[in-house]
Structure formats: C-alpha cells, structure tokens
Specification:
With about 270 residues, the chain is α/β, with parallel strands linked by helices. It is about 40% helix and about 20% strand. The protein has 10 helices and 9 strands. Strands 1, 2, 3, 4, 5, 6, 7, 8 and 9 form a 9-stranded mixed sheet that branches. α8 (about 215-225) packs antiparallel against α9. It is globular and about 50 Å long. The termini are far apart.
Length: about 270
C-alpha cells in the first residue's frame, strides 16, 4: 500500500547534507521522500535513503528559489493524492520516530492542520548553539504568531486537505514564505507543536536565514503588517523587535540566545 506521508526536501548544491539527512530518517512508518533539485550543478543524486522508504527526485532546469521549489514539490505531491506532507531540509537530522508521532497526532486530531515540535540548533561541529521553547497549544500559538513564527519550517507536518484550502507558499514574502503560510493555516485551522524534540537543525552559515537575513527580516515585517491586530500587544512587540533586529549583527543575536538558554537553566 502506498504511504500517505510525503516528505518534501528542496535542495540546492548540498549533496552531502542531503545524504546525512536521509540517513537520519529512522522510521518504521513507510514514507515517500520527494527531493526537489533546485537546479544543482552537478545534479542531486538520491543516495542513502533507508528501507522501507521510497525516494523521488524532481529536477528543475535552473535555480528558481526555495518558494518555487517548494510549490513545485507540493503540486507533485497533491497530484499523487497523499494525505500528509512533512518538511525537511538538507543538513538537518530527524529524531527517531518523528514522522510517526506527528502523523499519529494528526490522525487523532482531525481538526488540526499543522503540527511541529521542539528543535535543537547546532553548528557545523554539532555543538549546541541555542534552543527555543516553542508553544504547544493552539491558543498560545495563535497569539504568539503575531510576534514571531512558532514553527521551524523543516520540523512540521501539514494536512494536505488544509493546503488545498489555503493555497501554497506565496512569492510575496521572500525568505519568510513559511511564516506567512503558517499564519494563514493558524487563522483557518487549529495548529500545535509536540512537546518533544523532533529535529536537530544545522545552522548553516550559507543558509537563507543568514545570507539573506535582511531580506528575511523585511519579509517577516511584511507578514506581521499583513496580519497586524491593533488590539494585540504581540503585534506591536513583534514589529518593534523585528525592526530592531535590522541593526543587530547575527553573532550578537546568537550570543543573546545562548545566554538566555543558560539563564533558563538556572531557574
């Protein structure tokens, strides 16, 4: 029987990262892994995917950007009639049973369209950089989303029928396309995060979040303004924080996150 979960991985010139990620998929739940090669040179090869999972590579002739690659993969996934789509990025590592637990949550809670989880952030050597505590309940998430995204993109699983209702990733919010989509889903459906860690996220110095940081912050501000609620303090605080971040260097932000994590440990 065909799996009902497709794992969507966009890749651009990161063969080694993809292979590490595929090798980390420790699941008894059968999965179909859909890799979108966003114009890599040389082309991406699908190697190292454990059994019983199946892999598919969708190749784009030239690099079009992550929003285009994601939507290309989603169109293919919808045509194949999967029930759920999970995200994953090349270079990140899954905790064992992550997809099984997320699918189980969505199966037991049909009113929910999206489920994420907790994430560890590490550097190139695997050293912990910082951790964030993501809210687990829909009510908290729908409030905090006005201040920041409550989900890490490669740590989520989505219900395909919900995507059919709200649409795919928008190209109006470059480098923050995930935040805007999650906001749309949160407005229409219930969403949640699992309380346990589901992903080890590699903070890549060449990744979008760092190389296109200014564009990402500006897009994040645009998302906040699109869904701005004058009656919510989170809308005001999130907007002010994002504007302030435009002037703060990345090393300072990471230092403050590490200090905050240590401070939480002392409480």
């Amino acid at each position: 029987m065909k799996p009902d979960v497709a794992v969507l991985i966009p890749v651009y010139n990161n063969q080694a990262g993809l292979e590490r990620t595929l090798a980390s998929i420790d699941e008894k739940l059968p999965l179909d892994v859909v890799v979108v090669d966003d114009g890599s040179d040389p082309p991406i090869q699908l190697r190292g995917l454990p059994q019983p999972h199946r892999g598919f590579v969708l190749r784009l002739d030239r690099n079009m950007g992550i929003e285009h690659a994601l939507n290309h993969g989603l169109r293919w996934i919808l045509e194949k009639d999967y029930r759920y789509v999970a995200r994953l990025d090349a270079g990140d590592l899954c905790y064992p049973g992550r997809f099984f637990r997320q699918r189980e949550f969505l199966e037991k809670n049909p009113q929910y369209a999206l489920v994420g989880g907790q994430v560890r952030f590490v550097d190139d050597s695997g050293r912990d950089l910082f951790r964030e505590k993501f809210p687990t309940e829909h009510e908290d998430i729908s409030r905090i989303m006005h201040a920041r995204s409550c989900f890490i993109h490669p740590a989520v699983m989505l219900r395909v029928s919900a995507l059919q209702e709200v649409g795919f990733y928008s190209d109006r919010f470059p480098a923050a396309e995930d935040y805007e989509l999650f906001f749309r889903l949160t407005k229409r459906f219930k969403v949640a995060n699992l309380p346990d860690a589901v992903l080890i996220c590699h903070v890549d110095p060449k990744g979008i979040s760092l190389t296109k940081r200014r564009r990402q912050i500006l897009s994040r501000i645009k998302v906040m303004l699109t869904y701005f609620d004058v009656g919510r303090k989170e809308s005001w605080l999130g907007l002010m924080k994002s504007v302030a971040l435009l002037a703060v260097p990345v090393p300072v932000v990471q230092f403050l996150k590490r200090r905050l994590e240590k401070w939480r440990g002392w409480l």
